[in-house]
Amino acid sequence: MTVVAIAIFVITLVLVIWQPRGLGIGWSALGGAALALLTTVVSLSDIPTVWDIVGNATFAFVGIVLISLILDESGLFEWAALHVTRWGRGNGRALFVLVILLGAVISALFANDGAALILTPIVIQILLALKFSARASLGFVLACGFIADAGSLPLVISNLVNIVSADYFGVDFARYALVMVPVGIVTVAASLGVLYLAFRRSIPRRYDPASAPDPRSAIRDPLTFTAGFVVLGVLLVGYFVADPLHIPLSIVTAVGALALILVAARQPAFLFSRAKSLDSGEGAGTAPDGSVRLRRISVTKVVREAPWQIVIFSVGMYLVVYGLRNQGLTDHLAGVFAELGNHGVWITALGVGVIVAILASIMNNLPTVLIAALAIGAAGATGLTHEAMIYANVIGSDLGPKITPIGSLATLLWLHVLDRRGIHIGWGRYFKTGIVLTLPVLVISLASLAGWLLIIG
């Protein structure tokens, strides 16, 4: 039965990554789950257990992505990127740093998928307007892709694996932020240094900031654009308040997403009677030719394009992973983690983080984070050692996927987006770049985690 569980996991993973004939990740994972049920690798009684682990995390992530998509349609991210272009004041290296920092902020607030898939096309468009060479543009594009994951450590909502791990171990939003915000800052700083060293020669020294459009021209729905700042502020407060009140994170993000959907749809209508001036173009940005770039957001399209497949994927893939646990396979990893735990916080953080990063790069970070979480739960560690394992699992699952293209679904989608825009990055080239960029940042992040945990206790 152990061999069967491993075979089902491998087949499911291959189907999820390959997606033959347009088969979505959700249906691929669900097929694996059905096979696991038919072979009794998992039982029907395991379904509620798995849903209890991943349900809140999955819907919280969908809510965050919905918010990101609506704000992207309003022009928020393009507006921010164009402002960054002006702040660079014609200095190419300053622009490179600012784009990376913008990516880190977007990743922290809107999750890594939003940073990679939304920001990258915007940056490409701006670089074309600035007439950057293909070589220079590639450096910016790779930096955007890398910082999307490296910048997704600080908050629970910054990455789906963060939410899954925090949910599984009952880590509240405030404690997670206390530990990971400083570690996230160190990680971004380390990423910035590594990226700058890697691409400094390809970055042009000067550019003409006047070549880029006016940031105001990016705003396509002023009312939703403005409401976005209010909703984000309320959400940040809500994240901290939700835990003491025992309100699931998914409820908080759902309220935020619903609020923006209603604003974008101008519903209920009587509340938006005073917004007609904005809808007619007053206060909206203008394009370089003077025309108003205003358009009503298609809420139906945004909701339809939300990652609903991730809901099916979460249940299906994690049921397959739970089958590995039922066959005792996670116990072997638990034994390794327990041995690392006997050598203190530093060895624990570095050891667990590196192992998880390698696993995530080989078999994708979403199943990896749960496999590692199950192993950590069975390792029997306590106190700071246990906490070091929890956060090292998050760091390894967030950063490890950048080593290979199959490490995360977001990376595969990102590479597909680049291909459609005429920028092809082969898997061999990606791996060579990814491993050089990831390993030093990973070690620095894990070391900062260990040191910070020892300080705050």
Short description:
This protein is an all-alpha fold. Helices cover 74% and strands 0% of the residues.
What does this structure look like?
This protein has helices spanning 2-18, 25-38, 46-74, 76-87, 92-129, 134-150, 160-169, 173-199, 222-242, 249-265, 276-279, 299-304, 309-326, 329-341, 344-363, 365-379, 383-399, 409-420, 427-456. It has 457 residues and is an all-alpha fold. It has a domain at 4-50. Residues 287-292 have low confidence and may be disordered.
> Strand portion, in percent?
under 5%
What best-fitting shape do the alpha-carbon axes yield? globular
**Largest beta-sheet details:** none
Provide the helix percentage: over 70%
Poorly predicted segments: 287-292
Straight-line distance between termini: 43 Å
Rg over CA atoms, rounded to whole Å, is: 22 Å
Which series of helices and strands comes N to C?
HHHHHHHHHHHHHHHHHHH
Tally of DSSP β-strands = 0
- The averaged pLDDT comes out at 88
Number of alpha- plus pi-helical segments: 19
Structural class: mainly alpha
GO biological process, one term: response to arsenic-containing substance
Main location: membrane
Family: Belongs to the ArsB family.
Keywords: Arsenical resistance, Cell membrane, Membrane, Transmembrane, Transmembrane helix
Secondary structure layout plus pairing:
Layout: H1 2-18, H2 25-38, H3 46-74, H4 76-87, H5 92-129, H6 134-150, H7 160-169, H8 173-199, H9 222-242, H10 249-265, H11 276-279, H12 299-304, H13 309-326, H14 329-341, H15 344-363, H16 365-379, H17 383-399, H18 409-420, H19 427-456
